């Protein structure tokens, strides 16, 4: 094969390679792909031209080849310029400059169009190579201009690359100088061919190979040096201590924190494995990738580390070494611990918070399945008063004392926390719960801060856990409920939950939800119990509430009045009773206008309304004289806030109401109170005097009360009269009015009216 044929084949191969690469570049997702593809495609026409020049023996074909070559080169240089700007991230904003460059190239291409007529660019002349004619170029002025243009642009490209590779950081410059080098080589190569005027022009080969190199460098080449440097920088700047080992577990490098951690001198890393083993034990190195937490040191000196071991393999999965990172997480760990502590502990007392206590209790009762436990609700009574009377500072101190008592030397199985302001919660194994001891402690529970000494009343509600699956909050609710059964709050401090309590709660909810309907449908209505004078004649009645329930039947007030007194609904009951009584009185207006009705007023009523206004407006509304509606209040009403209450009673009396003191004798200071009480009638209950109507002691008391009241000008009424003897005796003692089963039980209004209104 002749030299020319061999080159022809070579050019064809390169031509095809360029084509393939151009397609790949065009499809590449890299941003540089488009202009790279353009550059590679531009290389193809001049290469084609060369194939014609070298392969043909006829002048016409060779000439056509030259046209392809020269015009193609213009396109090559133009697209190389474009590629260079993009590759070097240069934005050429000057549009006029860009247009000018394009125009010059257009002019250059145009001059070749005139060459067939004026021959101002080039001609060809045959020389003989290996016995065949080869058409060599004879350049003229136009061709020189063309070369000048191309070289100027090529020089510009090379200068740009030189600047880039000098101006960027070393590790990055690699990206530029690989291309710069190939451009330089191809320029020199091309130039030497052009000017040596050797037969068989091989200049284009260099350009085409440069194209292929550029293709590789800009699409596939990863700057390894750059990567190496980056990785090394990352490793040395990591805050974690890093140790690199070769396959034989020899430490080959450690970063600065690693050197500091192990205290090795930094010039040799050989001692690192020994030091690490001293710190973390020999198991710190394992043959598998693994991580673990290590704690070094004691108490305040304690340090927390996370060790991370990674193994490196080569492309064939053979071990190539490993590295270990050691992270000091002491700060994170300590702040986490502090956070956990403050989230789970009450600030004032240091006990668990409610949520955390619940969680811990739930865990404990499930892990210690054979321990019997009590859940205990600790309630500080009248704590508000402690804060009010003394100071909140003393209050805080008191709470701390209580917390201290709660957390007194109990076993590890016990748990305690603060549930809310003045309530605490405990979990105590049944066998550790010493009822007598606790009662004793609480009877004399005194808080003293040196100047103030105060007995704090504490009650414990105890729920013994039979069902461990119950929510802890429900267990505490039940323990809390038990408290409501404590009657004598100063004598008894501990109450136990049982099912009766639960039933009671359900009952309370049951009737509370039905109250308003009971009122509107008159299921709840007054019964009347007659009140008689010493001659046995009826003078009035007491209105007593009864609930004729559609499913539960007849309910006496003992079943619902205390429930409503507790939850405040009593107000609704009383208002209803007062209204009904007024309505009855207005009905009696025509037949027995002298009869009165006594109504009951609960202590709670005073909290929720202006009782005087409320009742006055009712009597006005029903046109009833106030004197016909008697007001029964109990001693307890007078106990709290007596000045205020005295005023209320005075207002009642000023408006013409008759005020009766109910259940006189049941309270503490009855006799003392009496002289200051603006009441018209004393209602004494026989029940308070015991069933011993013959007992001389009871008789003496009764006689004295009756005497006292007549001395004070207060009328007396005895209720609970059950026998003729009692009646007789009371009459002899000058009691004026009587009420009791001896005369009549409370009866429905219709019955009352049937019997007494005729
Ligand atoms: P209370 O005001 O002391 O009413 C007198 C209670 O003694 C009534 O019980 C009455 O039925 C009962 N009683 C009358 N005579 C005798 C007797 O000879 N022997 C005995 N053992 N008991 C007698 P009741 O009706 O069951 O009422 C109980 C309590 O419920 C009342 O005591 C009162 O405190 C309260 N209550 C009743 N109705 C109302 C009401 O409408 N409003 C308010 N706030 N409380 C009411
Ligand atoms: Ca009463
Ligand atoms: Ca009474």
Q: Helices, strands, pairings?
A:
Blueprint: H1 3-27, H2 33-55, H3 59-87, H4 95-118, E1 122-129, E2 132-139, H5 141-167, H6 170-196, H7 203-219, H8 224-237, E3 241-245, E4 251-254, H9 256-262, H10 272-280, E5 290-296, E6 303-313, E7 319-328, H11 330-344, H12 354-367, E8 373-380, H13 383-389, H14 392-406, E9 415-420, E10 423-429, H15 435-443, E11 446-448, E12 453-455, E13 458-464, H16 472-483, E14 494-496, H17 499-520, E15 524-533, E16 538-549, E17 553-555, H18 557-567, H19 570-588, E18 596-600, H20 605-608, H21 611-622, E19 629-634, H22 635-639, H23 642-654, E20 658-664, H24 670-674, E21 681-685, H25 696-711, E22 715-719, H26 724-732, E23 737-739, E24 747-748, H27 749-756
Parallel strand pairs: 13-14, 16-18, 18-19, 19-20, 20-21, 21-22, 22-23
Antiparallel strand pairs: 1-2, 3-4, 3-7, 5-6, 6-7, 8-10, 8-13, 9-10, 11-12, 15-16, 15-23, 15-24, 16-17
Give the helix tally.
27
Instruction: Return the CATH topology of the largest domain.
Output: TIM Barrel
Radius of gyration: 55 Å
Count of distinct structural domains: 4
- Ligand types: ligand C2E, calcium ion
Strand order of the largest sheet: 15-16-18-19-20-21-22-23
User: Spans of 5+ residues with little confidence (pLDDT < 50)?
Assistant: none
How would you concisely characterize the structure shown here?
The chain is of the alpha/beta class and about 750 residues long.
């Amino acid at each position: 094969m002749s030299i020319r044929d061999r080159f022809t084949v070579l050019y064809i191969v390169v031509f095809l390679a360029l084509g393939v690469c151009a397609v790949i570049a065009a499809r590449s997702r890299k941003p540089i792909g488009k202009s790279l593809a353009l550059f590679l495609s531009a290389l193809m026409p001049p290469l084609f031209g060369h194939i014609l020049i070298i392969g043909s023996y006829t002048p016409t074909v060779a000439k056509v080849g030259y046209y392809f070559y020269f015009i193609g080169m213009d396109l090559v240089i133009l697209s190389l310029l474009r590629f260079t700007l993009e590759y070097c991230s240069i934005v050429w904003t000057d549009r006029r400059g860009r247009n000018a460059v394009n125009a010059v190239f257009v002019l250059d291409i145009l001059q070749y169009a005139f060459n067939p007529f004026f021959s101002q660019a080039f001609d060809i002349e045959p020389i003989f190579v290996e016995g065949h004619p080869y058409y060599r170029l004879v350049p003229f002025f136009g061709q020189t201009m063309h070369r000048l243009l191309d070289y100027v642009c090529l020089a510009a490209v090379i200068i740009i690359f030189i600047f880039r590779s000098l101006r960027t950081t070393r590790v990055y410059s690699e990206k530029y100088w690989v291309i710069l080098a190939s451009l330089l080589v191809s320029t020199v190569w091309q130039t030497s061919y052009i000017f040596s005027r050797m037969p068989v022009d091989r200049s284009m080969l260099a350009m085409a190979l440069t194209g292929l190199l550029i293709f590789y460098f800009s699409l596939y080449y990863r700057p390894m040096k750059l990567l190496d440097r980056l990785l090394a920088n990352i490793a040395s700047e990591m805050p974690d201590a890093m140790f690199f080992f070769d396959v034989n577990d020899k430490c080959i490098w450690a970063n600065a924190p690693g050197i500091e951690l192990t205290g090795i001198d930094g010039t040799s890393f050989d001692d690192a494995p020994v030091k690490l083993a001293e710190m973390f034990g020999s198991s710190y190195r394992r043959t598998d990738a693994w991580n673990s937490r290590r704690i070094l040191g004691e108490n305040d000196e304690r340090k927390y580390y996370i060790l991370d071991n990674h193994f490196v393999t080569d492309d064939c999965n053979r071990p190539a070494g490993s590295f270990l990172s050691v992270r000091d997480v002491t700060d994170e760990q300590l702040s986490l611990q502090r956070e956990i502590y403050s989230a789970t502990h009450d600030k004032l007392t240091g006990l668990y918070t409610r949520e955390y206590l619940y969680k811990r209790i739930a865990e404990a009762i499930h892990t210690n399945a054979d321990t019997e436990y009590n859940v205990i609700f600790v309630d500080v009574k009248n704590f508000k008063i402690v804060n009010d009377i003394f100071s909140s500072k003393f209050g805080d101190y008191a709470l701390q004392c209580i917390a201290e008592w709660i957390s007194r030397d109990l076993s590890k199985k016990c748990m305690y926390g603060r549930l809310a302001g003045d309530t605490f919660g405990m979990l105590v194994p049944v066998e550790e719960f010493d009822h007598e001891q606790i009662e004793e402690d609480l009877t004399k529970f005194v808080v003293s801060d040196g100047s103030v000494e105060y007995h704090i009343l504490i009650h414990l509600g105890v729920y013994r856990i039979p069902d461990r699956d119950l929510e802890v909050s429900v267990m505490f609710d039940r323990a809390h409920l038990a408290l409501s059964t404590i009657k004598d709050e100063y004598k008894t401090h501990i109450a136990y939950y049982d099912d009766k309590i639960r039933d009671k709660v359900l009952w309370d909810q049951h009737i509370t939800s039905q109250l308003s309907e009971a009122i509107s449908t008159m299921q709840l209505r007054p019964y009347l119990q007659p009140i008689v004078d010493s001659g046995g004649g009826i003078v009035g009645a007491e209105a007593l509430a009864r609930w004729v329930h559609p499913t539960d039947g007849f309910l006496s007030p003992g079943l619902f009045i205390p429930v409503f007194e507790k939850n405040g609904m009593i107000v609704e009951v009383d208002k209803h009773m007062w209204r009904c009584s007024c309505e009855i009185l207005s009905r009696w207006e025509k037949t027995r206008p002298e009869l009165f009705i006594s109504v009951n007023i609960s202590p709670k009523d005073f909290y929720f309304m202006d009782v005087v206004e409320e009742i006055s407006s009712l009597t006005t509304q029903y046109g009833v004289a106030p004197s016909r509606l008697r007001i029964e209040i109990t001693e307890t009403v007078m106990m709290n806030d007596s000045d205020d209450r005295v005023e209320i009673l005075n207002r009642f009396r000023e408006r013409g109401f008759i005020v009766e003191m109910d259940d006189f004798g049941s309270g503490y200071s009855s006799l003392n109170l009496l002289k200051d009480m603006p009441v018209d009638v004393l209602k004494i209950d026989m029940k308070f005097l015991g069933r011993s109507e013959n007992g001389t002691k009871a008789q003496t008391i009764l006689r004295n009360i009756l005497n006292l009241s007549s001395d004070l000008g207060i009328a007396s009424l005895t209720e609970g009269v059950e026998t003729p003897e009692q009646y007789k005796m009371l009459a002899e003692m000058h009691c004026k009015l009587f009420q009791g089963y001896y005369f009549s039980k409370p009866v429905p209004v219709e019955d009352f009216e049937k019997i007494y209104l005729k």
